[in-house]
Amino acid sequence: MTRESVNSHMTAPNANTASQSPPTGVSTPDANAGLSAPAFSPLYQQIKAQILQSLQNGEWQPGDVIPSEFDLAARFGVSQGTVRKAIDELAADNLLVRKQGKGTFVATHAEQHVQYRFLRLQPDIGTIQSEGPAERHIIWCRRVRATAEIAKLLGLRTAEPLIQVRRVLRFAGVPTICEDMWLPAGPFKGLSVEQLSSHPGAMYRLFESSFGVRMVRAEERIKATTPDPETASLLDVSEQTPLLSVERIAYTYNNAPMELRRALYRTDTHHYKNELN
C-alpha cells in the first residue's frame, strides 16, 4: 500500500499494523469527527477537509493567499500532488481561487466576477452587469423569533432569535425583486437598516467583511406564484401578475445553513438563467 492510499479509519489487527501512524496533521476519525471527510475517503479528501477546517476557523480570511502547495505538503506530511488535488477540488467549489504567478487565494464575494454568483435573474436584453448596480431599498431589518418551519430549514430551535430583512431591488429603475431574508441573530449581531442601506456592494460581501460569514453555496426551489397586495405594491404590479418565487438556503463552510431567503421576481423584462453541466 502506498502512502497516498493510507486510510485512517482502518483498525490494527496486529502489532505491525498498530505501529503505523497517519500522516502528520491528518487525524484519525475519532479525533476528526467534526470534519466532513467520510470514512475510507482518499487521502486528498482528508487534506481537503483539513484545509476546509482552517478556512472555517478563520486561519485564512477571504482574499488572503494561503500557504504554497510545498508548505501545505510539509504541514500535513503528504505529497504536493495530494495537496494539489485537494486544492483543485476547493477551487472547483469556488472556495479557493488560483491566480497565475501569484498563488492560491481564499475566494471572496468582493471580486467583481462573483458579485452576482447566486443571482440567476438576467435581463432579456443585455446582462445583469450592463444594467448597472442594483438600487437597494431596505423596507425593514428587525428581530423576530424562528417559527418551527424556519428553524428546521436553518438548523435552529423553534423560537430562537433571528434577524429578518425585507428589501426591494431595482434594475434600471424598475422594481424587480422583493426579498425576505432570515438570518440567525448571533452571527449577525448589530446588523441594521443603516448598515444595509449604506453598504455599496452585494449583501454577501457585507456579511463576509463585517460579520466574518462567507456564503459558499446555495440551494434553491422555484415556483410560479402571484403576489399578495403588499408585495404587488412594492413591485408596482397587479395582484394577478405571475411572478417567480425563489426560495434559497445559503450555506457557509461545512454545510452550515446561514440564511433563508424568499424572493419574488418579476419576469416581464427578465428571465431566470441557469447553466447545466
How does this model look, in words?
The chain is an alpha+beta fold and 277 residues long. It folds into two domains: 3-106, Winged helix-like DNA-binding domain superfamily/Winged helix DNA-binding domain (Arc Repressor Mutant, subunit A, Orthogonal Bundle), CATH 1.10.10.10; 112-272, Chorismate lyase (3-Layer(aba) Sandwich), CATH 3.40.1410.10. The chain has helices at residues 15-18, 43-56, 69-76, 80-92, 148-154, 193-198, 203-211, 229-235; strands at residues 96-99, 103-106, 121-123, 135-145, 161-171, 174-184, 217-225, 243-252, 256-265, 270-272. A hairpin with a 2-residue loop joins β5 and β6 (174-184). α2 crosses α4 and α3 (69-76) crosses α4 (80-92). The longest helix has 14 residues, at 43-56. It is globular. The model is unreliable at 1-22 and 27-38 (pLDDT under 50).
The assigned structural class equals: alpha+beta
Alpha-carbon Rg, integer = 22 Å
CATH architecture of the largest domain: 3-Layer(aba) Sandwich
Distance between the termini: 35 Å
Q: What distinguishing features does this structure have?
A:
10 strands, 8 helices, disordered N terminus, 6-stranded antiparallel beta sheet, 2 domains, alpha+beta, 27% strand, Arc Repressor Mutant, subunit A
Q: What does this entry show, briefly?
A:
With 277 residues, this protein is an alpha+beta fold. Helix content is 25%, strand content 27%.
